[in-house]
Design brief:
The complex is a heterodimer of chains A (238) and B (179).
Chain A (H helix, E strand, L loop, with lengths): L2 E6 L2 E6 L4 H7 L23 E4 L2 E6 L10 E3 L3 H17 L14 H8 L16 E2 L5 E4 L8 H10 L4 E4 L6 E4 L16 H5 L5 E3 L12 H12 L5
Parallel strand pairs in A: 1-5
Antiparallel strand pairs in A: 1-2, 3-4, 3-5, 6-7, 7-10, 8-9
Chain B lengths: L3 E7 L5 H7 L4 H5 L3 E5 L12 E7 L2 E3 H13 E7 L1 H5 L13 H10 L17 E6 L9 E3 L6 H11 L15
Parallel strand pairs in B: 1-2, 1-3, 3-5, 5-7
Antiparallel strand pairs in B: 4-6
The chains are: A alpha+beta (238), B alpha/beta (179).
């Protein structure tokens, strides 16, 4: 296995060939903000929060889905990146109806935590206030599209950890949304195994256990990564 | 030292932010020689005075009277602070926006769910007309400071006031948490 050596925020780091810039940053103890990344499933670069600068490359690159290359000089915390991260977060908040105070995930939400950790004290863009509904047809789990950021962690979890392929993305642009099977009610799904892994994977309050009220929804997405580690390496985190 | 002239007001809100303000407890006593509360629902002043130093505005901008008052306050105030999630994001007040025109929730509240006296109140002198959408304060007037939270905890309110008095740091980290 060959090694790639690069510099991240002035710190030299070596990683195995094929590792992402995000992996390399982690190895160097540098935190890059992420939302759509989840250990255990492949990366899609959907949320754009992990954008970094690489010397000699004019465009910004998503750290999660960019393979680290030899000799790269990467910066993760420049003023320009912080400006874009804040804009990205504000756009996520403006796009749907995120009402933290009334949300099941209040206090345990990755979007909410990301917002304050990046210094977002208000949203400069006009809110869209779109009309999205909820799917409460499943006996155990609910989906509130108002709180969805389209990270598709649930889709990747459902397809590649559980293997059921129930959750999917439909539509384009602002009309994109998570669907069940061929856009059916979740409760009518013939493929859903009721495992709840999608609920564990959700960074916001979009997927939740039926009956959870404001602030009650906690989750442990790291347990999903544990399943993959166990499956691939036969190592159990107990 | 001249005392800082503080005003507070609530627009579309539940007054919870003001309750949280009162939760600073004995800190209010410490403030007496530093702050003069010149206008607020908790003091008896009818007219918004001139040359206010700081105004904490709770609540979303929901109807015409709020818009008028916001501009009035802006003209007479050095620093305006969006006080709590409704002022900062429109929060619960803004949940009606996705339902369509304001008549939709009004119809539901005053006709569909009403047991007696069914009918939407429509006297503009008594009940101001609702805006098409309940919106954050900074979409109506320039805002200098933001104090998120539903409600902002007393400690956070205290931290902002101390900062504005030049006695503390600006809000950072989870002091900016919504909800």
């Amino acid at each position: 296995m060959s090694v790639r050596t690069l510099t991240i925020d002035d710190q030299p780091v070596s990683v195995e060939e094929g590792a992402s810039v995000l992996d390399a940053a982690k190895a160097a103890g540098i935190t890059i903000p992420t939302l759509c990344h989840m250990d255990g499933v492949y990366d899609t670069g959907a949320c754009r929060l992990c954008l970094v600068e690489v010397e000699g490359i004019p465009k910004l690159l998503p750290a999660c889905s960019t393979i680290a290359a030899d000799g790269w000089v990467v910066r993760t915390q420049t003023e320009r990146l912080q400006k874009y991260r804040r804009m990205t977060l504000e756009l996520l908040f403006a796009e749907r109806n995120h009402v933290c105070s009334a949300c099941v995930a209040n206090g345990h939400c990755e979007l909410q935590t990301m917002a304050y950790s990046q210094g977002m004290d208000h949203v400069r863009y006009d809110y869209c206030y779109p009309k999205w509904g909820m799917d409460l047809s499943h006996p155990l789990f609910g989906m509130d599209h108002n709180r969805c950021i389209l990270c598709a962690r649930c889709v990747r979890t459902c397809w590649h950890i559980e293997g059921a392929g129930t959750k999917n993305l439909a539509g384009r642009g602002a009309g994109a949304h998570i669907i069940t099977d061929m856009n059916e009610d979740w409760g009518d799904s013939a493929t859903c195994t009721w495992c709840g892994k999608c609920v564990q994977s959700c960074p916001t309050g979009a997927l939740f256990q039926i009956g959870a009220t404001a602030g009650e929804m906690t989750r442990e997405p790291a347990r999903l990564a544990d399943i993959i580690t166990a499956r691939r390496k036969k190592e159990w985190n107990v | 030292m001249e005392r800082l002239k503080l005003a507070t007001i609530w627009f579309g809100g539940c007054s919870g932010c003001h309750m949280s303000f009162l939760d600073v407890d004995e800190f209010l006593v410490d403030l007496i020689d530093k702050i003069d509360i010149v206008y607020s629902p908790i003091v008896d002043t009818k007219e918004y005075p001139e040359e206010v130093d700081l105004c904490l505005i709770e609540g979303a901008v929901c109807h015409e009277e709020h818009v008028e008052m916001a501009h009035h306050i802006r003209q007479r105030t050095k620093l305006v602070c969006s006080f709590g999630d409704c002022a900062v994001t429109s929060n619960v007040c803004g949940m009606r926006n996705a339902l369509g025109k304001p008549e939709v929730p009004l119809e539901y509240a005053y006709v569909t769910l009403a047991d007696t006296n069914k009918g939407i109140p429509d006297d503009p002198v008594i009940v101001p007309n609702l805006l098409e959408q309940a919106i954050p304060l900074h979409q109506v007037i320039p805002v200098d400071h933001y104090l998120p939270g539903c409600p902002p905890p007393a400690e956070r309110i205290k931290a902002l006031i101390l900062h504005l008095l030049g006695l503390g740091d600006p809000l950072t980290g989870d002091q900016l948490k919504f909800g």
